[in-house]
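Priority: medium. Attachment 1 of 2:
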């Protein structure tokens, strides 16, 4: 009799990680992941999970919460610290895999992994702090104090552009506070989140504490935001999706933290070091092919130096080499997928047809040689842009920058603040008084002086104002305020009913 065929074990990446096990999706469906630098290369398939998979993960996280919340925070921190060591050991491997799945150059993907490492060390340190406070009570022989409590099951939804750093900004503070998590990574970049979760598993995170459910936003993501046992949603992505997520979270009273889009600005004053400013704008606008939430997509330049600056910028943009991010000759990689490419090219068309905007360089899909297999767009500069134009108002999320002339400092500030977003801004000037004034005048969550709009560090709060966020901050110790709730405790040691006590709430 013929032997039954051996069952082929599915790869971890074809599974969800739920309750400490790699399990195939109950939906039975998968999504295929491709290399945006060469779309002929498939990177394998990942679960396209449905609500039943999310339910399973939430149930595991809910059960694990009962014990994880009681593990002393310094012990939880030891696991996170160990994950940092594992990430450090596997940094090059993870960076390479990230470049394959989302295209940015190795230097940048190494930076992405490094940010996750920095975050593990930073948050592990918080395990020995998680400070509360004490204060004076109104009555004698009464003690008043306030402590941080975990919230419960946290649903985390992340974008593709920082596929390890952003999951780390959410998972690590959630865990240190004693929560358990279910993460749904972006459909274009699940692998980097799997790599991060693998490091946590190897470091000893107990079953059910971290669960990963791969899938599409409208199915797996929506199931998470609608699940009654998920007490908190932490979302990073576009403002349009954030609105949907927040609406759904509000329907069953979840805590909801949103980090959304940006339309960031570099202001260049007449006294600026122009070489420095050009260098900053080049990397701010074209690094990660302009697909950073903090990308410099508007440059407001004083009219006295606008012509010179624009010429220098166009010259610099022309020297950037497009290519596969794995090559050390590449400066700018592809954009994430075909849909993003056509959206960006659509904005370039809008720019060309808008009221006197002038296309100075770029403007096309790049198809020379092997580039034709990927989603490459030439670094694009528009000059003569007016602040009201769509290319100066809407988030393009691609390698496109608009140069807008201003008459003076006040004009620059008005233009800078004249968009619905408020993530990052910068000023180039040699006048320190003006730099300090700008710090106050600009309505963004992040501000740089004589540097571009990018380069945040994990121990400072990260997030934006207006339509970029809903008032929360990731990074810094401020992130603990998202993932913990305050409990006020009164201890009356008078041994009697104090009259004033019953007059209060
Ligand atoms: P996106 O909004 O398309 O998707 C983000 C995530 O939401 C993905 O995981 C997606 O699957 C999920 N999603 C989609 N529809 C959903 C739904 N109905 N319910 C639940 N989840 C759903 O964003 P993207 O294209 O992945 O990322 C780019 C955007 O993210 C840009 O706007 C960028 O500015 C923003 N971003 C912001 C920050 C920040 O910190 N402010 C950081 C990085 C990226």
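Attachment 2 of 2:
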């Amino acid at each position: 009799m013929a032997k039954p065929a051996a069952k082929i074990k599915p790869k971890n990446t074809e599974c969800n990680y739920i309750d400490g096990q790699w399990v195939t999706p109950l939906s039975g469906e998968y999504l295929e992941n491709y290399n945006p630098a060469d779309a002929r290369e498939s990177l394998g398939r990942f679960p396209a999970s449905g609500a039943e998979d999310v339910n399973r993960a939430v149930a595991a996280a809910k059960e694990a919460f009962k014990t994880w919340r009681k593990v002393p925070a310094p012990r939880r921190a030891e696991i996170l610290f160990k994950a940092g060591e594992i990430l450090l050991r596997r940094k090059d491997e993870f960076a390479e895999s990230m470049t394959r799945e989302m295209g940015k150059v190795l230097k940048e993907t190494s930076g992405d992994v490094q940010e996750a490492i920095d975050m593990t060390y930073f948050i592990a340190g918080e395990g020995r702090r998680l400070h509360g406070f004490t204060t004076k009570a109104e009555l004698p022989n009464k003690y008043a104090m306030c402590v941080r409590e975990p919230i419960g099951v946290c649903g985390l939804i992340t974008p593709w552009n920082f596929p390890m750093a952003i999951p780390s900004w959410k998972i690590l503070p959630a865990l240190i506070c004693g929560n358990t998590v279910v993460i749904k990574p972006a459909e274009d970049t699940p692998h980097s989140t799997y790599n991060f979760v693998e490091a946590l598993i190897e470091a000893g995170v107990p079953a059910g504490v971290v669960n990963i459910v791969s899938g599409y936003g409208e199915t797996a993501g929506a199931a998470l935001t609608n699940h009654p046992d998920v007490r908190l949603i932490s979302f990073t992505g576009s403002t349009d999706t954030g609105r949907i997520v927040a609406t759904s979270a509000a329907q069953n009273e979840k805590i909801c933290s949103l980090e959304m889009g940006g339309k960031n600005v570099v202001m260049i004053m007449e006294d600026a070091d122009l070489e420095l400013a050009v260098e900053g704008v080049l990397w701010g606008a074209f690094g990660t092919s302009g697909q950073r939430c903090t990308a410099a997509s508007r440059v407001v330049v004083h009219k006295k130096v606008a012509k010179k600056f624009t010429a220098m910028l166009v010259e610099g943009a022309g020297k950037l080499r497009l290519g596969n991010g794995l090559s050390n000759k590449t400066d700018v990689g592809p954009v994430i997928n075909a849909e993003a490419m056509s959206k960006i090219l659509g904005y370039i068309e809008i720019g060309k047809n808008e009221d006197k905007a002038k296309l100075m360089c770029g403007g096309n899909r790049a198809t020379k040689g092997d580039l034709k297999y990927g989603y490459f767009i030439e670094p694009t500069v528009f000059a003569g842009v007016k602040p009201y134009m769509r290319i100066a108002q809407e988030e393009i999320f691609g390698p496109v920058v608009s140069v807008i002339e201003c008459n003076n400092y006040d004009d620059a500030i008005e233009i800078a603040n004249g968009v619905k977003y408020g993530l990052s801004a910068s000023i180039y000037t040699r006048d320190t008084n003006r730099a300090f004034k700008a710090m106050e005048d600009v309505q963004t969550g992040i501000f740089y002086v004589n540097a571009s709009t990018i380069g945040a560090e994990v121990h400072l709060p990260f997030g934006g104002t207006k339509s970029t966020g809903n008032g929360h901050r990731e990074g810094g110790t401020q992130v603990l305020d998202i993932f913990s709730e305050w409990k006020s405790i009164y201890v009356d040691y008078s041994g009697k009913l104090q009259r004033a006590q019953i007059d209060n709430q």
